[in-house]
Every structure is written in structure tokens, then in C-alpha cells.
Design a protein that fits this description.
single chain; mainly alpha
């Protein structure tokens, strides 16, 4: 009986289900690692991408482009706006 169980599940379709589970495990592990690295690279700030279209930042960039403010002032104000 034990031999029949091992033959059917390990050499029959058991290897297929084990392969699928291992494949799913590695896919989940890689996706989790990518997400964790992405969060760490952004400094843990989830709102970094949402502030790209900030109108105040756009005005600041326009003022810098026109030469109304220098680089030092631009960087200070941009840092203040991104907090």
C-alpha cells in the first residue's frame, strides 16, 4: 500500500503539483523583494510619485528657469515643498 501511494503521488502527478508550488513560491519571493527594494530606494515615502504634478513645484521650476531665483534658493524651496 505504501509503495502504491509513493508511486502514485511522487512519480505520478505529485511532481507536477510540487513544481507548480515551488514556481509560485519563487514568483512571490521575487515580487516581494522588488517591492521592498523599491520602497527602500524611495526612502520609504509612498507619496513621492504623487507629488510630481504639484503646482507649487511647477511654479518654482518656472521661476528657476526664468532666472528669478538662484540654484541654492531653488534647492532649498524644493526640499521644503517635498516634505
Amino acid at each position: 500500500m505504501w509503495h502504491r501511494y509513493m508511486t502514485q503521488h511522487m512519480w505520478g502527478t505529485g511532481w507536477l503539483s510540487m513544481s507548480l508550488y515551488m514556481g509560485i513560491f519563487w514568483i512571490v519571493a521575487v515580487v516581494a523583494a522588488v517591492v521592498i527594494v523599491g520602497v527602500l530606494m524611495r526612502g520609504g515615502r509612498a507619496d513621492t510619485l504623487q507629488r510630481v504634478d504639484d503646482p507649487a513645484l511647477k511654479v518654482l521650476e518656472e521661476r528657476y528657469a526664468r532666472g528669478e531665483i538662484d540654484k541654492k534658493e531653488f534647492l532649498e524651496k524644493r526640499r521644503d515643498l517635498q516634505r
